[in-house]
Predict the 3D structure of the following.
Amino acid sequence: MLFGIVLPQSHIDELRTAVGADGLITGESQLQTYECDGLTNFRVLPGAVVLPRNTGEVQAVVRICARHKIPFVSRGAGTGLSGGALPAAGGVVISLARMNHILDVDIANRYVVVEPGVINSQVTQRVAAQGYFYAPDPSSQSVCTIGGNVAENSGGAHCLKYGFTVTHTLGLEVVLPSGELVQLGSATLDAPGYDLTGVFVGSEGTLGVATKVTLRIVKRPEVVQTLLAAFDSPQAAGQTVSDIIAAGMLPSALEIMDALAIEAAEAAVHAHYPVCGGLLLVELDGPSSEVDVLMGQALEICRNNSAREIRVAQSDAERALVWKGRKAAFAAMGRISPNYIVQDGVIPRTALPSVLSEIDRMASAVNLRVANVFHAGDGNLHPLVLYDRAIEGQEEIALDLSYRILYLCVDCGGSITGEHGVGKEKQEVLGYMFSEPDLQTMQLVRCAFDPDSISNPDKVFPRPRLCADVPGPYTPHPLETAGIAEIF
Amino acid sequence: MSTTTTWTREECLAHLASIAGQEHTKLCGESVAVAAADAQQIAEILRFADASGIAVTPVGSGTKLDWGNPVEAGIRLDLKRMNALREHPWQDMTCTVEAGCNWAAMQAELSRHGQMVALDPLWPEEASVGGVVAANDGGALRLKYGGLRDLIIGMTIVLADGTIAKTGGKVVKNVAGYDLHKLMIGSFGTLGVITEVNFRLHPVEANVRTWTATAKDAAIFAEPLRALLDSQMTPSAVQVRVRKQECALDVRIAALPECMDDYAARLQKIFGQVELSESTENVWQARQELFSTEGAVVLKVSLLPSDVCPVSSELQQWTPREGTEISVLAQAAGLMTVALKSSPDAAIALIQHLRGRLHGSRGSVVALQVPEALRGGLDVWGCDSNALPLMREIKRRFDPNRILNPDRFVGNI
């Protein structure tokens, strides 16, 4: 844990004026609640946490930060897995938890306007009665917030068909790192000017704070059918996925779990999965006549790839249980291993069989186990590297393996992250995927939004970069530069 | 030469010829036209232009070159030599294509594996990929497949200082780094030169049928259109056409052959008393035809889907009252093309009226194709965004010497 940078009392007083005494946290034990997000091996204590109630209070806080060059990190539910909401040491955490209202619902135009602290699944709950849903469904959707989804451009199992958070984000109200308020995009398409909404979504909190989000909602499909097919290996399941896509189908989800992942999910939630080397979940949705025909085709493709057992969920309850096992898979790893690293990489779908074999080989070479859970339809792997921290040196070996898996993804034309973001965890790996000119070009955008690098600084990019950066080994902390704190 | 005193036009020609070859460089009116072979040559050309303060206009096939404010460029940077479909890993359903590639040629190649970029831009036989992307063009398929921001997964661009940068990648799901390609889509060549685009692909719509309903007033379509969009059907395109006192609504359905009759029945049920009849694929050319209206200003209107029929109807009513001729093609997703033939004053009055009418719902009106008589008196972009200072700052960072299409875009970016 990093200690040693404190906010001067005068700045804390200003923050209290901005959000009120009940909106400010400075006590060390309470601050510890905010010292990490879902990536718990990185921990940093913030100088203060503020809980604004509205856009005006967010602006007031950001203006204070801008005036004194205090780094700030905005935060939703803190479920992110890449350390994106990790505080800056001694900086301000802006928790959007109290800005959790759904402001507008327009069914005729299929959009809703929400505050950033609204929980993902609440959006669907709000429009379900009219037959609509909000499509992006990260596994944490019952707790994660829309603001966090916007920051990370979250996906989920169903983005194969429905797209990502950016697909469904029509407009944003954003407090820029200067404290100014801007409207980006709107419920209407193609506003004249640059598509700043498109750039902001997925920028991981480095371009400002979203205070209102206009989201597209989608009509719930007439029928949903879910098929489970058991194969001898994840490679065989992977080949089935390629064949389904090659047949011109666009299922709403195509998920694969390997034997270890099945074992863990069974132990955790008793989803009654068949015991096998590779389990494929296929979900088709749409008008009933179409889904019936396509399900027949999918079953045939599974049989052609020697599926040894095929089940079609017969009720909503059965389907819910299938998904419960899949969505619980990460947390379930605790049942079969004392510690584990959740990784997130993407490969071209056709590389699935060869990459899975290579991951097996790499894991065996260092005597570790890797469980595989993945969104196979879009090649998004979630290798779970299992290890025991109590065994000296094993954590380092596990971390090294997890990064080498990412390099493998890049080497075969993929990406280092499909939905978890770069955050703190992968900022060095970003430099493996993008060249220096690519990164410098991204910095042009960063610096246009945030010239003082105070909005979620030292994240995403491979090393601390400031907009007036000159090459050199040491970049001082913004608080240090501003002369308001020192490192001791 | 519009911008520099350092180089004569002939000297500029000679220098560009030394980069791209004599046979690919020529004088073209007041400009020097140069056709680059690759991103490296573009980088060299831009470095030269940037150092010399010479304005550059990137050109694909030139079909939309007059959209936006006019640019007097010293260098016309032609992308036509960069016309290859570089990769088509069809099993991954992605492709990488050079910006100068002809749109229809690209689609023809992709269709060999039954795939397509799911976008229907204007003039596909002439338009280049880079031009379609820079102008963010697209037609009625947007309803089902989204726009370019949903279809482009990566890009290569060259900045004004010659930096060659890649953004995104070749996989559909990817959240590494900023999505700079989203910034480039619709930026009208003001931030960098697009040299390569990576698309996600969809299966070609193999089995398609189109139905059309007709009426005297577009307002009649409001309820069936609402019901259709609120249904569980997923038409690939829906549009409303208005010409004089005739209106039509077209629905395009792509489906498995065995499901088509079921869809036809559902559609007729939704439309109730409004009769549908099967029509030809030609109706989807209607948007393009509006751009051929002699002497008309052609507008891109963005509005809420629920405003599509009411606003179409209002424009229909406007015609006899003002002595103007108005044709409308409204896509159900909330984008409308309006061809307006009238006196300059009446045209400006109508554009101002529309902007006021849509202001509350944050709609917009951009004049894409503007007759010479209207040029001086019309704000073609009508952008009142409070993010304009931020957009200017992005432009300043990307192109500090303002050599890339200066003044062409919103707020004289």
Q: What stands out?
A: Chain B has a mean pLDDT of 95. Chain B touches chain A through 86 residues (CB under 8 Å). Residues 233 and 303 of chain B are 22 Å apart (CA to CA).
